[in-house]
Amino acid sequence: MHAGGICDRISDHQSVVFIRLKTEVNFCISPFDITRSIFKIGKFLLKYVVPGYQQIMKHFRAKIICAILLIAFLSSNLMLLPSAAAISISPDTHGTVITVKNPFTAGYGVEAANYSVTGVDGSWIQPKFSCSGSTPSSAGFGIQIDGFNGKDIEIVGTGGGCSNGVPKYAAFYAFVPTTSLEVFNIKISPGDKMFASMAYSSSTNMFTAYLKDESSGKSARATGSVPSAQRNSVEAGVVSEVNSTSQCCLALAKFSRIPFGMDHTHVSATCYATISGVTGPIGSFGTVLKLVMTNVSGNAVRASPSELSKDNSSFKISWKSAGP
């Protein structure tokens, strides 16, 4: 596992770095999903291939005959079915969740095929930082495209931390490596309901970062080009700041439990992604990465997400320890 980040100042004393996580994960599809896809294909075949299907199904006894015919058909024509890797999982199903522990991020993410991601959006309620002492600490909250693999990252969200015991808050975006972290001119306060989106346009080859404070009504937008973008992952959650050596991390600012997604914010269709033309909750795409932030040694948790909601869209992230 390898990680790198970007850094730029968001105040006189505070900087925030947003990390991209690289991990090797073997993607799979469960036998349940294969079986479910088989029966969907069977239903299609009965409806559109077997003559007189509508009339046949009116008779209860004929249903048994149809079931037998379906089993026989599938048994003799199994070679016609696509391989497991080619079967598309509908967004209304739960993806397979794999937990990944790392020092940099907490939340949920999805890895996808290169150039398949065209958008992600999210909503959250800005948490309050609890600051004490003089040790600097930071945390960021947002959504992003890319960042799991390669050097590219397109990210938008809110961040801040503690400087000399004083909490600071800011809104940001970045198109890396084209631009480093930039600050939106929006005042952010604890308790504000936030909405953000990152979208890619194939016609212009540009990304658009959008952020709106639903509580104040203030919003901002920025566009940027990242020619090397792979568009092969999305993520929503909390990120940590690396130290000056870019190895690992500053202390994670203590924050109140932060809710993500429409079930908690009532901002519809968040946290959602669009991958290969399919739009759905972030937890519905095949293999989902549950990102747990640990200290450098990996023996203590710094921040951890809850389980996904039943609709795959929402979760909460709890601060556990500062680390690093």
Descriptive notes:
- The chain is mainly β.
- It folds into 2 domains: 15-24 and 90-319, Peptidase G1 (Jelly Rolls), CATH 2.60.120; 31-86, no CATH class.
- The protein has helices at 31-48, 53-56, 60-76, 262-265, and strands spanning 2-9, 15-22, 96-102, 105-111, 117-125, 129-130, 137-145, 153-163, 166-176, 182-184, 193-201, 206-213, 219-224, 233-239, 251-252, 254-255, 258-260, 272-275, 278-281, 287-294, 301-305, 315-319.
- Strands 3, 4, 7, 8, 9, 10, 14, 15, 17, 20, 21 and 22 form a 12-stranded mixed β-sheet that branches.
- The radius of gyration is 23 Å and the shape is globular.
Properties at a glance:
43% strand; disordered N terminus; 324 residues; globular; mainly beta; twelve-stranded mixed beta sheet; Jelly Rolls; single chain
Short description:
The chain contains four helices and 22 strands.
Lay out the secondary structure:
Elements lengths: L1 E8 L5 E8 L8 H18 L4 H4 L3 H17 L19 E7 L2 E7 L5 E9 L3 E2 L6 E9 L7 E11 L2 E11 L5 E3 L8 E9 L4 E8 L5 E6 L8 E7 L11 E2 L1 E2 L2 E3 L1 H4 L6 E4 L2 E4 L5 E8 L6 E5 L9 E5 L5
